[in-house]
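Subject: sequence -> structure tokens, single chain

Hey, anyone have a minute? Need the predicted structure for the following. Not urgent.
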Amino acid sequence: MGRLDAKTAIVTGGNTGIGREICLAFAAEGADVVVNYIAREADAKSLVETIQAKGRHALAIKADVTREDDVRAMVARVVQTFARIDILVNNAGIQKAQAITEMTVEDWDRMMAVHLRGTFLCCREIVPHMQARGSGKIINMCSQLAYTGRARYTAYSAAKGGILTFTRSLAQELAPAIQVNAVAPGLVDTGFDPLPETRKREIAASLPLRRLGRPEDVAPVFVFLASDEARYFCGQTLGPNGGEVMP
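Reply:
Had a minute. Here:
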């Protein structure tokens, strides 16, 4: 038996990178998985086929998590298809390295919208369904930059800092029926990070574990928090970061 047998999970931004690995890990533990995406449709469809080949149900849904109508339509379709939502992973995110003097208002607003507005909208629409069932797990994607910041990542770091405190506040609001936690990875080599390779090597060399993270280093943390094993975790942020941050 898997740790997530008979559960239905939504993973936003689930078609690539860490999100993809989370979807695969959830399916391996017995969950049916909804892969949300906004671009790279071929990746989403390929992932669904991979999950289905392993004997689990999977569904790809294109939706912009910053748009109320898109989120409502996505949630309605999931409920219609699976009749339940047990796990929400707010993983959708963007990165952009910019000096503060180069950043436009549109750049700032988009960063806040994808990370904070998207997390808020998905929680707001899905929480009533979890409350009706009397249980649920919400796991928000944070970042070690919520603690440390990074030059040229002011908007991203601020958005992730917002998710950190959003998680703590929502955990208090929804407990005990619904558990809300977060994961704050360090730099993970997904192929999508805008940092130059030389800078990545410098960061890797500075870490106690002497390497960058991989998606498969992070996904098990989400499985743990989604499972009954994490029944006493509430408002926590776990940090698979190679030792970069030790709160």
